[in-house]
């Protein structure tokens, strides 16, 4: 059930009516939301409902055990149980076949008659997200930063809340559990803001991401030798805005869906291509993952407390694993290492060359920093998008191709690319102005705008296409 499908619109309306009908009865309302969440997840593949129930039950049990245990050694064993159990599930479904294949290839080179058998499994939707979300709860309870949840119903909803279940944001228990345990109050303003976020997300997905993918990115990345260098460059820019529109569009719909049900989810994007360095980029891009990696991996490795050399190593390890989190492929690993290296270089430059984030207020210098950072990020996206590493030099060498500029870039593509740049780099106040303009309209006007927008989206999209981050 895709966010950009008619079936999701019907489902969300059904959940909205049921939830607010019984909102005064908290337990019933939560049961309704949990049932809706499991129905939503089961619509992808009902067989994997058992998987999310296992991860939920495991981390709930570990949280309760940690709450009752004071002995340090046993607390560590309980934490290990939660971490190994959760990551073990993730490893089997996401990484087993990859490593089995690589081990078999290595053994074949040694001419040893042995083959590691692969298993026929489909990657469960959202497993990386709800695994990390569950683990953050367990680790916070272990660190005594969070009181354990005593209600299995509340905890199950925390893990499986459908707006953010499939592709985030990865919400901390300290942010969502208090909302779950409190009665929600109906607010027309919140619902209006939620509807605006849903429309905004659909616009990013359909008008920008899907259009650029269909009319530019997929064609050029599929055969870069057939296009001129400027067209290849436009395709690289196009993918940067495709993946941003696709992923941030999903997040906007998730935030909007949660908001009309009375829940607030954290922002996950903050105009990342405005960043002046890679450190700032990761403070603006996929914020819930970058803060998760910082708080539960980078700091656990020692962070910046053990000298510069160790700090650089910690950055590389963190981003290496961040790349691997996206999938079992060398392209994701290389993408993560590129960002880890760039973060290490950024830190070195800021500490040793006087290139701090606020080292210059000169608008020209600021522009050059932003442009340089954007192109480093685009280089990373080329690696990220590639099917295999050998495709990367082929695509990059395509920048040197001679050819007709107009052969691969239509006026429609140029218009959407321009729209992507303008909307991304426009002042935040303009977005706030548009949002407030929608929110302050009457219900009738909002309904009309909603209907017209959905009709336009339907015309522009012949079929609902999956979100990129659903595969992770």
From TrEMBL:
Regions crossing the membrane: 6-23, 28-44, 50-67, 79-99, 151-171, 191-214, 226-244, 324-345, 366-385, 405-426, 447-470
Mode of membrane association: Multi-pass membrane protein
Subcellular location: Cell membrane
Record has Magnesium as a keyword: no
Organism domain of life: Bacteria
Gene Ontology CC annotations of this record: plasma membrane
One BP annotation, GO: alginic acid biosynthetic process
Primary residence: membrane
InterPro entries from the UniProt entry: Ac/AlaTfrase_AlgI/DltB, AlgI, MB_O-acyltransferase, MBOAT_fam
Alphabetic keyword roster: Acyltransferase, Cell membrane, Membrane, Transferase, Transmembrane, Transmembrane helix
MF terms in GO: acyltransferase activity
Family: Belongs to the membrane-bound acyltransferase family.
Protein's recorded name: MBOAT family protein
Species annotation: Candidatus Abyssobacteria bacterium SURF_17
Source organism phylogeny: Bacteria, Pseudomonadati, Candidatus Hydrogenedentota, Candidatus Abyssobacteria
């Amino acid at each position: 059930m895709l966010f950009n499908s008619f079936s999701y619109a019907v489902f969300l309306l059904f959940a909205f009516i049921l939830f607010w009908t019984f909102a005064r009865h908290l337990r019933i309302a939560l049961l309704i939301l949990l049932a809706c969440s499991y129905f939503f997840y089961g619509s992808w593949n009902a067989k994997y409902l058992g998987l999310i129930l296992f991860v939920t039950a495991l981390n709930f049990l570990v949280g309760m055990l940690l709450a009752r245990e004071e002995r340090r050694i046993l607390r560590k064993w309980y934490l290990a149980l939660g971490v190994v159990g959760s990551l073990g599930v993730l490893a089997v479904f996401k990484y087993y076949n990859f490593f089995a294949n690589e081990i078999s290839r290595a053994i074949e080179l040694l001419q040893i008659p042995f083959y590691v058998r692969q298993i026929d499994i489909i990657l469960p939707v959202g497993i990386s997200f709800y695994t990390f979300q569950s683990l953050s709860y367990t680790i916070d309870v272990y660190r005594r930063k969070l009181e354990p949840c005593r209600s299995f119903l509340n905890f199950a909803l925390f893990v499986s809340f459908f707006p953010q279940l499939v592709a985030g944001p990865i919400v901390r228990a300290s942010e969502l559990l208090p909302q779950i345990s409190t009665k929600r109050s109906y607010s027309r303003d919140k619902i209006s803001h939620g509807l605006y976020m849903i429309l905004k997300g659909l616009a990013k997905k359909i008008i920008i991401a899907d259009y650029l993918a269909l009319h530019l990115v997929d064609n050029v990345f599929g055969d870069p030798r057939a296009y001129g260098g400027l067209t290849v460059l436009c395709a690289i820019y196009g993918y940067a805005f495709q993946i941003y529109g696709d992923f941030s569009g999903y997040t906007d719909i998730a935030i909007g869906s949660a908001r009309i049900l009375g829940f607030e989810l954290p922002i996950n994007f903050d105009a990342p291509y405005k960043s002046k360095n890679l450190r700032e980029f990761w403070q603006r891009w996929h914020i819930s993952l970058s803060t998760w990696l910082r708080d539960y991996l980078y700091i656990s490795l020692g962070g910046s407390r053990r000298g510069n050399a160790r700090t650089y190593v910690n950055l590389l390890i963190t981003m290496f694993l961040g790349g691997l989190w996206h999938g079992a492929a060398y392209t994701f690993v290389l993408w993560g290492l590129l960002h880890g290296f760039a973060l290490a270089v950024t830190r070195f430059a800021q500490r040793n060359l006087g290139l701090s984030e606020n080292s210059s207020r000169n608008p020209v210098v600021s522009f050059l920093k932003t442009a340089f950072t954007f192109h480093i990020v685009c280089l990373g996206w080329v690696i990220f998008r590639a099917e295999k590493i050998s495709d990367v030099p082929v695509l990059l060498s395509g920048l040197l191709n001679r050819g007709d500029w107009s052969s691969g870039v239509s006026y429609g593509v140029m218009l959407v690319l321009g729209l992507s740049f303008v909307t991304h780099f426009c002042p935040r106040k303009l977005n706030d102005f548009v949002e407030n303009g929608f929110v302050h309209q009457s219900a009738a006007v909002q309904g009309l705008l909603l209907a017209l927008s959905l009709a336009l989206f339907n015309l522009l999209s012949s079929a609902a296409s999956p979100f990129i981050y659903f595969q992770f």
